[in-house]
Amino acid sequence: MSQTRKQNSIGFPPGLLGEAPLRMPVIGESDGWLAVEKPIGVGMREHPWDAGVADMDAALNKQLQAEKPELVKRGATLFGSAYYLDPAISGVALFAKTRDSLTELKNLVGSAELRYRFFFVTKARAAGGVCALVADAPLLPHNTKPKMIPSTAKGKKSTTEFKLMSESSSGWALWEATTTFLRPHQVRVHAAVQDLAVMGDMLYAGPEAPLLSELLPNKRTSGIKFPVLDGLALHLREVILPASGEGTAAVSLRAELPRHFRVMLQRMQLTLPKAQATVA
């Protein structure tokens, strides 16, 4: 993390969000909300599917009640997550800082006023395949497993748009997924329905990550027998908030790609368009 990003970040001591201390860069803030870059392995809020996983709602409020200066100075009276994001996914985490702003954010989320944009890696499709898809299978929580399933009879309306961004000769592809109403696991299950299951997503039959030896056949290193990525190859790159009033502009909150994600793309020879390669 650069010195500038480190200075404008929120810290969590050991034991609060895991054994190691964490610092999350702040990527946007207003009087009513705060947005940070969430790493993998951390939950945003308590959820029955994530038993035993520490969540940021609880961690932020615990530190606020303890009057931690870097939180108190932000004018927060409480912290509340705007939406649910799987602990396995990195990216933009948005929190209200007051009870009124939490109500406003929840209304925006419930009215599909936010736009979410994800990057993910999957197996490349056959030559000549389509470069854009729309998945609109209604989704329903499974009765016994921590997952969503398509159900035209009882599922709730869900729509995800997919766009191909890059393909490599090694047989992998980088896709973008966007939606305006984010249900739990929505991108993961919709990607699987479209035969684009996210790499590393065992819950939805995603492909296993390739070994470094498969991507770097001519290189001999001690790590050559390890997979190129451990976990989901899925990142919430951007959340767009609507304009708050006449004469104002929409707000784009963009989370930098984690280092392990950038290294993975490089080794898989997958490239981002120049406009997406860095945080604005």
Number of DSSP-assigned strands: 13
Q: Overall mean pLDDT score?
A: 92
Query: What is the domain tally?
Result: 2
Beta percentage is 25-35%
Helix- and strand-based class? alpha+beta
What does the oligomeric state look like here? single chain
Helix coverage percent:
10-25%
Output the CATH topology of the largest domain. Pseudouridine synthase
Q: List the uncertain runs.
A: none
Shape: globular
Calculate the terminal CA-CA distance, rounded to whole Å. 16 Å
If classified by CATH, what would the architecture of the largest domain be?
2-Layer Sandwich
Count the helices. How many? 7
CATH H-level superfamily of the largest domain: Pseudouridine synthase
Pattern of helices and strands: HEEEHHEEHEEEEEEHHEEH
**CATH level 1 name of the largest domain:** Alpha Beta
Radius of gyration: 19 Å
Largest sheet: 11 strands, mixed
Task: Give a description of the structure.
It contains seven helices and 13 strands. It has helices at 3-7, 56-65, 69-72, 99-110, 186-193, 212-215, 259-267; strands spanning 9-12, 22-29, 33-38, 80-81, 90-96, 115-123, 132-135, 139-141, 148-150, 160-167, 172-179, 234-241, 251-254. The strands form two sheets. Strands 1, 2, 3, 4, 5, 6, 7, 10, 11, 12 and 13 form an eleven-stranded mixed beta sheet that branches. It has a two-stranded antiparallel sheet with strand order 8-9.
